Amino acid sequence: MKLLKIFGGVIGTAFLMTSTLMAQRPHGIDVSSYQGTPNWTSVKNCGWTFAWAKATEGVSITDGSYRYNINNGKAAGVYMGA
């Protein structure tokens, strides 16, 4: 019974630590022309800290919203990648 209490305490502690660590992770999104033109200030204010913007698909297709997303995301303070 004592071992069961110890095991339960270890599992409970691990669960709480995992929840705390998950809360500290940065939050990000991916965007492309499919999403239209997001309001990047609203994206930042909702807690998103980074975003991936689609630039191409293969060698012949380019995303028409790429420049808009990169420029406006950066201007709003969102870390941008492609």
UniProtKB/TrEMBL annotation:
> Is NADP one of the keywords?
no
**Molecular function, one GO term:** lysozyme activity
Tell me the leader sequence span: 1-23
Per the record, the GO terms for biological process are: cell wall macromolecule catabolic process; peptidoglycan catabolic process
Listed A to Z, the keywords are: Signal
- Keyword presence, Transcription: no
Write out the similarity annotation: Belongs to the glycosyl hydrolase 25 family.
Tell me the protein's name.
Answer: Uncharacterized protein
